[in-house]
Amino acid sequence: MNKYRTNHKTSRSRLPFLSLFVALGILGTILSCEIEDDTPPPSAYVAPEPQPEPEPGEDCTFSTIVPEIADGIDFECGGPEVEFFGEKDGSFTLDFVENPDASGVNTSENVVQYDQTDGVEPWAGFFFDLASKVDFTVMQTVNIKVYAPAADQIVLLKFEDSADGSISKEVQAVTTVANEWEELSFVFSPSDSDKFDRLVLFFDFNGPKDAPSTHYFDDIVMSEGGEVEEPGETGEPSTAAPAPTIDPLEVISLFSDAYTNVTVDTWRTDWSDATLEDITIDGNAVKKYSELSFVGVETVANQIDATGMTHFHTDIWTADATEFRIKLVDFGSDGAFDGGDDTEHEIVFENPTQQEWVSLDIPLSNFTGLTTQAHISQFIFVGAPSKQNTVYVDNVFFYNEAGVSTQPTSGAPVPTVPEANVISVFSDTYTNVAGTDFNPAWGQATIVTQEDIAGNNTLKYENLNYQGTQFAAPLDVSGMTMLHVDYWTPDSSTLNGYLISTGPSETPHSFDITTGEWVSVDIPLTEFSSVVDLTDVIQLKFDGNGTIYLDNIYFYNPPATEPTVAATNPTVPEANVISLFSDAYTDVPVDTWRTDWSVATLEDISVESNAVP
Q1: What 3-state DSSP class applies to 520?
Q2: Which residues pair with 550 in a beta bridge?
Q3: Average pLDDT over the chain, rounded to whole?
Q4: Which burial class, exposed, middle or buried, applies to 81 when counting CB atoms under 10 A from its CB (0-12, 13-18, 19+)?
Q5: Among residues 4, 263, 370, 522, which one has the fewest Cβ atoms lying within 10 Å of its Cβ?
């Protein structure tokens, strides 16, 4: 780590030396008076010369301090000693200088100048220690005046426990103007009190850092502010990630119950900013990263040679991450970090699907900066919003696409909709409509078979161009709201599904394609109803390419999520009742049905003309 050099300013005042001289004179006089007289002679006291008022900027000696953030840090007479991190191929300087633009929200004389050269890490920054743990019980907002070279840059403020960096919290703000002072606010919570005694700052966090930059900042102060909602558990997967189907001979696995894993040094380096738990979901081992900012995984002792692989794979599940990043780092032929031949590249996934397992199959060719792949030693996962998301990770491996299975090794997910809510066309779970022809002669090139996949009867369309399904009698599905289909494909790039009524009248639904796993698709029947007569559905049709496996084709109504009939009218005589809420009685006044400390949304609705909160 590099440390800045403090610039010292020395006052011109000589008052301390004059005061010492006068004090010695007075002391000598007092001693002489004890011997000769109680009254000093008139010449014994010499009045000090009047001192001129200090010039601006010369009223103190600038010094290095250990600040107390509750008192505010104005950098006029003192500043903390900082340590930098994330140098890589660049460097930093930090100086206390005159305000380059004493206007707007900041007219103070002295500010801090922070310079970064190009080549520093995207997460580069600096930190300094505080005199004591920060108390957020009264004031939860930290304000910092910032002068940035561009708008839309992330400024990240992080607090840590200096003795344990895993105890931390960070909040981001974004600059809105360029070359102008503005005050950015970072809101914390009362529950963050007495945890942190180190302040960390990142300017242009995760920016490109491909050119030198200068930022100024000043006046770090606390103020009262609203408590933010605490990051918390927003759910976790109830089922395991999809089981991989790739030939083990074509896989280098770091973490998966399906394969033999290579040795990994650590799944959370000491420079990571996240909490790691090893948990089990549905009998499957899973890595859980909570309060995720970034986490490093290292295989330095057993570096991975992925030159024979074509893809990197992992499965993730999150309920709250809005962005997920994966960085691969190769240490080069010298096998050492920062040895001059390192290569790396980061892939960004914006808005990953939430509350379901997402399989990421990334061609290694997409990691364009990873120009060498024989000594892969680091994997870095990054989540956003920083420190306010949880990501579950499973099945981390490299593979060669030559080993990708051409058929599923497990059956489609078992449906859970009650049979009373279902009209089933093809499923082992339900009673299917009778007499359906799954391979009518329509001149298609598709080869149709029914395969046993892990005990599940499954439709297979090979060499698909189009394929029909003919019902023995028209289906009235107007009482249903959804069509469900499970599909699996090793190679298809296009798949469309159609409902057809007499006419014929038909309209398609285009499927989003994911290969190598079962995908469950639920299609609102409103996608078809403007064209197709839902009381007279005579056929289904699929068209596309490649090979498609299909299962669990059924129409259904989702289970009710709110009542459709009113609650039973109470029969207790009103004379025996004190009612708070009921259409059957006279209610006593209630202050509120949702206090301001509640964590819920309230709506006053009517069910069968009956008021319901």
Answers
A1: strand
A2: 459, 487
A3: 87
A4: middle
A5: 263
**Predicted TM-score (pTM) of this structure:** 0.42
Q: Using alpha carbons, list the distances in angstroms from residue 481 to 423, 429, 529.
A: 11, 19, 10
Q: How confident is the model at residue 59 (pLDDT cuts 50, 70, 90)?
A: low
Q: Give the tokens for residue 65.
A: 């301090």
d(CA 502, CA 509) in angstroms, rounded, equals: 18
Residues 6+ apart with CB under 8 A from 599: none
The per-residue pLDDT for range 577-599, each reduced to its tens digit, is 999 999 899 999 999 998 988 87
pLDDT value of residue 235: 77
Q: What is the DSSP annotation of 40-82?
A: --GGG--PPPPPPPPPTT-SS--EE----GGG-B--SSEE---
**Rounded to 5 degrees, what angle do the CA atoms 6, 9, 15 make?**
140
Q: What is the pLDDT of residue 474?
A: 97
Among all chains, which residue has been given the structure tokens 């289904």? 540
The secondary element (H helix, E strand) that includes residue 528 is helix 526-529
Q: Cα separation of 227 and 371, whole Å?
A: 47
Cα 396 from Cα 88, distance rounded (Å): 27
Segment 209-214 shows an average pLDDT of 94
Distance CA 255, CA 253 (A): 6
CB 536 within 8 A of CB 474: yes
Is the C-alpha dihedral spanning 414, 417, 420, 421 positive or negative? negative
First-to-last alpha carbon distance for the chain, in angstroms, is 59
CA 328 distance to own-chain centroid: 19
Structure tokens at 176: 């809105």
Residue 212 has pLDDT above 70, yes or no: yes
Residue found by looking up tokens 């922070």 in the block: 114
C-alpha distances out from residue 455 to 414, 492, 512, Å: 12, 24, 27
CB 545 within 8 A of CB 490: no
CA distance 504 to 457: 30
Count, residues in the chain: 613
**Beta pairing class for 273-281 and 456-462:** unpaired
User: Residue 328 and residue 508: Cα distance in Å, rounded?
Assistant: 40
Alpha carbon 248 to its chain centroid, in Å, reads 32
Helices (H) and strands (E) in the chain, counts: 2, 33
Map residue 437 onto helix, strand or coil. Answer: strand
Q: Per residue in 250-264, pLDDT tens?
A: 999 999 999 999 999
Tokens of 549: 């496996």
Looking at per-residue pLDDT, the higher value among 22 and 453 belongs to 453
Look at residue 226 and tell me whether its pLDDT is greater than 70.
Answer: no
